[in-house]
Design brief:
Length: 172
Amino acid sequence: MERTADLGDPAWLGFEQQCLIRARQGGTHAFGELYAAFAAALYRQVLLPRLREPALAEEPLAETFCSALINLDRDEGRGTSIWYWLARVAANKATDLQRRQASAGRALVRLAGLLDPAEGEQRQPEGALAFAERQQWLRQQVAEVLGRLNPRYRQAIELRILQERSRQEAAR
């Protein structure tokens, strides 16, 4: 039975606590009820306002519920809804994603700065060998940086930047 969360209703809090107890005992259906009650609201109210792109909000939402499942035993039932804890975890997951994206973006800017001087070297015959060596080194650096990214983000960067595909082509 799918229920709608009413965070101030004692009956709702009792339902939440029963779901948590059953989930701690291995009841996957009970955890599914909590997911059904809170996932859409976390997505709309916490993640989308921070990340602004629906596709970006999916990963932190999944990570939020993974954290909740892993840490079920830590919740001591303080008499408040689990919503508040889930919202804080979701906000932290969104911040973590933003930090990873910013780090990857800085790496790409540094990489672009490295590529510009190499372009001029290629035009001079005496610089052809140096250019080839530098390109090999840059390829290794790009592979290393991209290897640290989430595979989905890595693929998006490769399609948009390295293969210079349009946003629509990359999305497909």
